Amino acid sequence: MSHTANSHIADAKRIALVKRALLSMQRYSWEQGVAAQALLESGDTDLAFLLARDAVNRQDASGKLGVMNDGYSVTDSAANGEAVARAAQVTGDPLFVQGAASMLDWLLHYAPKTEEGILRHVIDKPQVWIDSFYMAPPFLAVSGHYEEAVKQIDGYRKLLWDPEAKLFAHIYDDEAKSFIREAHWGVGNGWAAAGMIRVLASLPDGMTEERERIASYLQQSIDGCLAHLREDGLFHDVMDDPTTFVETNAAQMVSYSIYRGVQLGVLDKNYIRFADQMRAAVHTRVDESGLVQGSCAAPFFDRPGTAPESQAFFLLMESAVSRYRETEGGES
Q: What is the pTM of this model?
């Protein structure tokens, strides 16, 4: 058996272990959402639809999906949206159809927003978080609300982008007009990149100007991240603060975004070497139980450990590199 074949078998075993560990960990709405998305993009549609069904079963009266003691969030629940919408499209089951419609209705008509109409992240506070880049705009785009998805991306970019650091800050207070957390959180910048690439994947070709603008945001974001890539292929938890711990998940998130960006034609193929470097580094951080170690750790995100979103992004990264290789007709 060739070295390449052995490598693929090892990768497949690792993916299976990571998936198993993910399913043992996901709890909250955004965790369930990113898990369902990872399964969807990995081609495990039946399992993604099971998570989607549970997300609808735990939909609250406002329309937010998968709520479990995290109803304080505005956008996290929308991370479940694409899986629920896909299940509605494929099965026609009224459970999914109504579930997706109610989630969409919340985002469009009831969710708290800034004066400019940009979705906040916390119901009772005037805060805009970088996490929302990933949670809501992709679902809006998948649902055909392209202009609204673009509006949200533009709004988050305007409020959170630090042009000097060429990175995104974490939390902005829209009433105080100042940052609550100005730190350039690695995983947060990963949420932004992954959210933008998913929106780009859904926008129609006719929206040329909008596609080009978001593609420019994406490239600037990835360039800003790569300026802080360590020799070992990983980032610090706060990307431009080397006193913070070395973190795993941001590398997966940026790697995923690069593979998909090159495949979609919005990033140059020269970025692939960085994606490969980050992916190789991440593979060394997966333990014998399939846990992606050294990630910004749930539930408090103040130390290295494990997190459902990190498990999910390993799967997303692996599905993205697989699709990229199929497009290129071989190894990257």
A: 0.96
